[in-house]
Amino acid sequence: TPEEARMLRQARRVSWIPTAGDLGALLLEAQMIKTQQPLFNKRLRKNRQLCSIQIAEGKPEVVYARDVDFSHSPNLFGLYRSRHKALETLKYLADEHQLCHGLLGLEKLSANRACFRAALRRCAGACCGRETLDDHQARLLEALESVRVICWPWQGPVALIEEGKLMTQIHVIDHWFYLGSVSDMEEARRLKRAPSGFDHDGYKILCRPLLSGHYPIEPL
């Protein structure tokens, strides 16, 4: 495309770093984008507004990674780049599962009155007694389950071993943070612990590989 052509014309040098496989390449790419801040890779840059939906006292609320430890906090659902995106998800789930905007905190409920959507049959009526609050809560949790944020399942950092045809790498991970890749366990134990906060991209890249059982994992 013309946009790609303009980008390529700015290139002055091409370099490469070998990795053991796809996982190491994805981790290295995400790390380098955050440290080098390249002009054309904006999506993987650090997001200071990262938020999630947390169920607290039966009601969903938007919480931020700067305030809550996403690695350890239970009942977190979804990772969103803004509060607006999180609320849009709740609205979508409300439409799909006839959930009440009032009970989801998306609008105020008047005392002893049904919400506006209940009159349109777009809410199943938990706000006015047509269904129980427990049934409403169960549908909400079922709808959110597919995007549950998994808590870090180890006490500390772990080594994930990726074997390739030409090399083997030990990827060191701590609370979903990628700390680096080394060639032996002694080096792995010397890597520094993860910084504070939560790495959205590290979580997306690592969650399935770490929990799948496909790669050997050793606690450090």
Would you kindly provide a written description of the structure presented here, covering whatever features stand out?
Helix 2 (22-36) runs antiparallel to helix 7 (200-212). The protein is of the alpha+beta class and 220 residues long. The strands form two sheets. It has a four-stranded antiparallel sheet. The protein has a three-stranded antiparallel sheet with strand order 2-1-3. Strand 4 and strand 5 (168-174) form a beta hairpin. 33% of the residues lie in helices and 18% in strands.
Summary, kept brief:
This protein has 220 residues and is of the alpha+beta class. It has helices at 2-9, 22-36, 83-97, 116-119, 133-144, 185-190, 200-212, and strands at residues 51-56, 59-64, 76-80, 158-163, 168-174, 177-182, 217-219. Strands 6-5-4-7 form a four-stranded antiparallel sheet. It has a three-stranded antiparallel sheet with strand order 2-1-3.
- Strand arrangement within the widest β-sheet reads 6-5-4-7
Give the N-terminus to C-terminus distance in angstroms.
47 Å
Name the helicity range: 25-40%
Class by SSE composition: alpha+beta
Q: What is the count of helical runs?
A: 7
Residue fraction in strands: 15-25%
User: Main beta sheet, described?
Assistant: 4 strands, antiparallel
The rough form would be described as elongated
Question: Would you report the number of β strands?
Answer: 7
Order of helices and strands: HHEEEHHHEEEHHE
Mean pLDDT, rounded to whole units? Answer: 89
Task: Round the Cα radius of gyration to an integer and report it.
Answer: 22 Å
